[in-house]
Task: inverse folding
């Protein structure tokens, strides 16, 4: 059963803040920065307030403030100093910490405010590539080390998806400018990791193409329905978990037989499992190491 984390070990704090556990212990003992609870076996446990304070303290510390000076500040003064820094630093420097805070506290308003501020400075493509992508990689590590619960990851992922859906809806209000090809975006059977595919849908729409977004777990046989829908159908997929590396070539053979029989249709693939594909026999199957590489080809 998924339980929302409300207490954190010192190792959890290390993973979330980037401050070594040894350093946190020194700050706690020397400057009384935190007051953790203790288990019966004398293991430190920190609450959400301590985590939030540490994230803010680490921001100041990494920007040249001496820890002795930070320790004398009130909590609100620390927050004010952090806000001042965010106005001066690049978006990458401050947004990751705020997105993690919004996730830990399930704070949708903080997420939205941070996102809106980024959109004033950057394009959505820049935000996704330089901030959301590293964030999702970091969340994977945090989940594996039990520093966050699945609820935290689902919360932040859901908010990112909402933003992409909203941006795509605005783009779809306009008629496609490029009508020579239609893109069909789908994930193979049992593949559910659709965030990257949603982002590709946004980028393709932004370039004036028509897209048909099918989403998760689409059987190959269902894709043959699109053979006569347009002169050129371009299928786009992300192989994150499925098809597994031991059957990815078999999947492609089936796809070519079922779907690529129509002249002019193509399949563009990215994702972790794509690296296990041997060189495709069909030149209309193209493999890309990353979403960014695929986007350059559009």
Result:
């Amino acid at each position: 059963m998924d339980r929302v984390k409300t207490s954190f070990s010192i190792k959890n704090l290390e993973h979330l803040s980037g401050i070594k556990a040894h350093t946190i212990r020194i700050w706690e003992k020397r400057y009384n920065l935190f007051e953790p609870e203790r288990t019966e076996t004398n293991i430190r446990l920190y609450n959400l307030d301590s985590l939030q304070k540490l994230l803010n303290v680490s921001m100041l510390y990494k920007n040249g403030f001496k820890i002795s000076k930070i320790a004398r500040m009130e909590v609100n003064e620390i927050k004010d100093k952090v806000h001042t820094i965010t106005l001066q630093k690049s978006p990458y420097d401050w947004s990751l910490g705020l997105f993690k805070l919004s996730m830990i506290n399930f704070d949708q308003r903080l997420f939205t405010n941070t996102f809106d501020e980024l959109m004033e400075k950057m394009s959505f493509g820049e935000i996704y590539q330089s901030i959301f992508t590293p964030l999702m990689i970091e969340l994977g590590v945090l989940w594996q080390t039990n520093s966050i619960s699945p609820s935290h990851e689902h919360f932040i992922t859901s908010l990112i998806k909402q933003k992409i859906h909203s941006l795509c809806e605005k783009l779809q209000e306009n008629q496609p400018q490029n009508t020579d090809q239609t893109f069909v975006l789908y994930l193979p059977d049992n593949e559910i990791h659709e965030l990257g595919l949603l982002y590709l849908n946004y980028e393709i729409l932004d370039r004036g193409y028509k897209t048909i977004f099918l989403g998760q777990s689409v059987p190959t046989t269902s894709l043959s329905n699109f053979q006569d829908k347009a002169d050129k159908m371009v299928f786009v997929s992300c192989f994150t978990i499925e098809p597994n590396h031991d059957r990815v070539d078999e999947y492609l053979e089936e796809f070519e037989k079922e779907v690529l029989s129509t002249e002019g249709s193509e399949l563009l693939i990215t994702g972790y499992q794509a690296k296990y594909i041997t060189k495709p026999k069909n030149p209309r199957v193209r493999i890309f190491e990353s979403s960014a590489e695929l986007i350059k080809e559009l």
